[in-house]
Amino acid sequence: MGRPNVGKSTLLNHLLGQKISITSDKPQTTRHRITGIDTRENHQTIFVDTPGIQNTEKKAINRYMNRAATSTLFDVDIIVFIVDRLVWSEEDQLVVKSLAHATCPIILAINKVDRIVEKNKLLPHIQELSRHLRWTNIVPISAKSGHNLEELRQIINKHLPERPHLYDADQITDRSERFMAAEMIREKIMRQLGQELPYKVAVEIESYTQEPEIVRIDALIWVESAGQKKIIIGQSGDRIKKIGIDARHDIEKMTEQKVMLKLWVKVKSSWSDDDRMLKSLGYDE
Ligand SMILES: Nc1nc2c(ncn2[C@@H]2O[C@H](COP(=O)(O)OP(=O)(O)OP(=O)(O)O)[C@@H](O)[C@H]2O)c(=O)[nH]1
Ligand SMILES: [Mg+2]
């Protein structure tokens, strides 16, 4: 759990050793709960990545995202609350407020320590953070470089309840390849476009056909205006071509097959504030 952009999805991917959740340098990249299953010898950990909790954007999609995050609080045995270096903001405070209702152990992970310049400020910061909630542990980590992640894993293991494993040892997520393909396309859009546009974009897989030698995917990119459509397509189609190439590359890696990916852009004004449209795009618990 944590506010947007602190590195939750990067952490999930690093702990799993595989990319399950999309990441970008823009806040509000993750829109759904994403489950990653990690089975090692007698431990099975089901990591749940959540959208960043925030209160600046208030459309239907943002309400959905906040709900997807906060509803997770009561479904888990352990919470890892993530903060970004020495920053403590109102949004962090907002997350802590919702954590106050949780009854399970809460581990505080201070992420991106690879980018802390004034290392001597870390210890006083840790002391300061102890005032906000009763953390079971406080661990400085780098989700990107892997620093201290084994220590974090050990701490999590100590708190795991004894229970039969819920998934087969070779299962890595409960999401379908179809869902993952849509996310990979959205990731390229998040990464390649400027600050505003990514939030106006949704991806819908129209058809996903597995053939003996190839996977054929037709996907719709929904935007909210004709101007946005023009930006996604780019000068003589350059942008959408690049999005398509990068996304296809990732989907081929995931499916270990050749992929034929076709993208179309469609306009539906205010889809992000339209409950029915959101439901049809899979923003539905
Ligand atoms: N330097 C550094 N960058 C990191 C680290 N962890 C994550 N990042 C970067 O921080 C940005 C946000 O990472 P995400 O994993 O997408 O963050 P998130 O918390 O999942 O964000 P939302 O899904 O928007 O809530 C990306 O550009 C990451 O590469 C880290 O340990 N060190
Ligand atoms: Mg994320």
Count of DSSP E strands? 8
End-to-end gap: 18 Å
Output the strand order for the largest sheet.
3-4-5
Order of helices and strands: HEEHEHEHEHHEEHHEH
β-strand amount: 15-25%
The helix content is 25-40%
List of distinct ligands in this structure: guanosine-5'-triphosphate, magnesium ion
Which CATH class of the largest domain?
Answer: Alpha Beta
Give me the CATH fold name of the largest domain: Rossmann fold
CATH architect. name of the largest domain: 3-Layer(aba) Sandwich
Task: Specify Rg, calculated over alpha carbons.
Answer: 20 Å
Q: Can you tell me the number of structural domains?
A: 2
The poorly predicted ranges are none
Mean pLDDT: 95
